[in-house]
Amino acid sequence: MAKPPPRKPKKKVCAFCKDKTAYVDYKDTNMLRKFISDRGKIRARRVTATAPSTSVTSPRP
């Protein structure tokens, strides 16, 4: 039996670039909540699909 062709994963889009956010506000906890794990660690770029330019300017704890 022939295998079906593999599915291509959907390309993730940066949430900040999609909303055209110029500045990442470190006080906006509701927005930053999805970029931080339950233990308080910053999630990787490959998980959150954040653009490299945005992740450099994002606030660090």
Automatic annotation (TrEMBL):
Family membership: Belongs to the bacterial ribosomal protein bS18 family.
Residues passing through the membrane, by range: none
InterPro entries: Ribosomal_bS18 (IPR001648), Ribosomal_bS18_CS (IPR018275), Ribosomal_bS18_sf (IPR036870)
SUPFAM superfamilies given in the database record: Ribosomal protein S18
Signal peptide: none
Protein name per its UniProtKB record: Small ribosomal subunit protein bS18
Source organism (scientific name): Streptomyces thioluteus
Pfam family, any one: Ribosomal_S18
Origin superkingdom: Bacteria
Keywords: Ribonucleoprotein, Ribosomal protein
